[in-house]
Amino acid sequence: MSVEKKYGLMCRSLYNLSHPGICATKRLIQDRFVWPSMLKDIAKWIRCCIPCPRCKVRSHTVSPIQPFVSTVERFQHVHIDLLGPFLPSDGFTFLLTSIDRYTRWPEVIPVCDISAEAVAKSFIANWISRFGVPAIITTDQEGQLQSRLLYSLKQMLGIQRIRTTPYHPSSNGMVERLHHTLKQAIRCHDTKWTESLPVVLQGLRACIKEDLNASCAEMVFGKTIVLSEEFFEPSSQSPNDPSEFLLRLRETSRTLKPTPASCHSSTTCFVHTALKTCSHVFVRVEGLKPSLTAPYQGPFEVLSRTDKHFAIKKMTGPPRSALIDLSQLFC
Questions:
Q1: What is the pLDDT of residue 265?
Q2: What residues have CB less than 8 Å from 197, skipping those under 6 apart?
Q3: Could you list the residue ranges forming a coiled coil in this record (predicted)?
Q4: CA-to-CA distance for 104 and 127, rounded, in angstroms?
Q5: Which one, of 123, 99, 110, 80, lies nearest residue 195 by Cα?
Q6: What HEC string does the chain produce?
Q7: What is the pTM of this model?
Q8: Residue 93: is it exposed, middle or buried by C-beta count within 10 angstroms (0-12/13-18/19+)?
Q9: Residue range 225-254: mean pLDDT, rounded
Q10: Tell me: the pLDDT tens digits for 29-55?
Q11: Phi first, then psi: what are they for 183, rounded to 5°?
Q12: pLDDT tens digits for 283-330?
């Protein structure tokens, strides 16, 4: 065994006692040994330690948020998701949620069966039958939204589907924000959630959106909706001719311009410079985990990279790649 390897084994054996870091390890070894280029060798060996980047990450990557491509028509781009399970109410335990990117119009459908077939039928019956076939659908990676049935539906209707990366809810942020607001509003009612849901939806559709400076009901119908507490007043105007009304509605719709969604996050972006050139990365473990579980897994080989996503090689199961958002990586 060469002298360099002996020094390396000795350094790692001392470092592996408690993984104290580069500076503390240099002090520890300097008090006991000496050899040429000792400090440089210690730093190089410690940077090759695999458990440290798995367990001792202090600055997590926070990638910048990229905007969606602006839609030019109403009901062209729809976000859909599943919310639940909830306590049973009238036999329902889940909600199928959809929201249009242009008008911000929400549809929330109680469902008791979240199989792929039931989800597809509910979306067709409650969204496509009212607003037509969207050009783009954004979903997360839930099994019910990834099935062959929805793939066949996409092929049959000519819909482009955008899938978010795993454990990255901001990619589907518009519908995730709807979930947050919806649950807060339902909690404020004392009745069963299936009974309070229509009232909550009426309020959400009538509220003014700050980025639109209009309600989603105005964006869809061209006027505000009458709420349950309003007084009805007799109109003194003469009835409009339907053809004239249709002409004015079309002219007004043509003047509408898409408004990009506002970003309310104040998080400072931080990306490790080594991520631009590294050959392997560690992936953050999301969700609930025991307290002594390492927060990162890896290393995984990098197959390709962009400014926002990395394609990595999976270590377990059949050989395949996975697309991971930059904010979940470390090297």
A1: 65
A2: 108, 110, 186
A3: none
A4: 14
A5: 110
A6: CCHHHHHHHHHHHHHCCCCCCHHHHHHHHHCCCCCCCHHHHHHHHHHCCCHHHHHCCCCCCECCCCCCCCCCCCCCEEEEEEECCCCCECCECEEEEEEECCCCCEEEEEECCCCHHHHHHHHHHHHHHHHCCCCEEEECCCHHHCCHHHHHHHHHHCCEEEECCCCCHHHHHHHHHHHHHHHHHHHCCCCCHHHHHHHHHHHHHHCEECCCCEEHHHHHHCCCCCCCCCCCCCCCCCCCCHHHHHHHHHHHHHHCCCCCCCCCCCCCCECCHHHHCCCEEEEECCCCCCCCCCCEEEEEEEEEECCCEEEEECCCCCCCEEEEEHHHEEC
A7: 0.76
A8: middle
A9: 71
A10: 888 888 888 888 888 888 888 888 888
A11: -65, -40
A12: 998 877 888 888 999 899 999 998 888 999 876 655 667 889 998 999
Residue type, 193: W
CA distance 215 to 74: 14
Give residue 321's identity as a one-letter amino acid code: S
